Amino acid sequence: MKNYIILFFLLFLSLKIDGQTQRFIYEYSFKPDSLNKENVIKEIMNLDISDEGSTFYSNLLLDKDSIFMDQVEKGKISGNITLDFRKIKKSQANFIISKKYPSLEITLHTSFNALNLAVKENKILNWKIQPETNIIEGFKVQKATTNFAGRNWIAWFANDIQLQDGPYKFCGLPGLILNMQDEHGDHIFNIIGIKKKYSRTFINHFKLKEITVTEQKFNKLWNEYRSDPAKNIKQIHSSSEMAETIFYDSNTKSPLSKQDLIRNKEQGDRKYFKYYNNYIERNLYK
Question: Sorted alphabetically, which NCBIfam families does this protein's record hold (predicted)?
Answer without folding.
Answer: GLPGLI (TIGR01200)
